[in-house]
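Q: Structure tokens for this one, please.
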Amino acid sequence: MIKEEQNFINLINEHQGLIHKICIMYENDTDVRNDLFQEIVLQLWKSFPSFRGEAKITTWMYRIALNTAISGFRKQTRNVKTEDLQEVHFNISDYGGDDHEESFQKLQWAIRQLSEIERAMIMMALEEVPYEDIAETIGITQNNVRVRMNRIREKLRKLMS
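A: Here is the predicted structure, written as tokens:
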């Protein structure tokens, strides 16, 4: 195996959690989520030779993964699906009680009500990605990130109340 391939495999192994989180945030169906994961890895592989290191590797990965999740892949595979909220099951381990799990499910539901860009921003914020990196990934100013994050938080508060 050539060195570039090994570097890419190491990168994916090290940061696969980032890709999984994006897949979970944008797709409910397990099969579609797995397809999205593969598509993101493929897009990362195609872009890997042109990565120049001007941005952090995770910022570059977020940008490609989010663009893939939001744009082309979703258009190709999108079927209209409806789910009764009572039938939605989240695969969450028990963190110590029904109240915590219920709150977490409510948060997940509220996040899914956000626009695709808002979901991307809140996901990165929950991962403690600095506003500077969020701005670079999304392609907006840091000040715009701050304003949008305040609006997103307010929208989530209203959805959860």
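A few notes: Confidence is low (pLDDT under 50) at residues 79-97. Helices lie at 3-26, 30-47, 57-70, 72-77, 98-112, 116-126, 131-138, 142-160.
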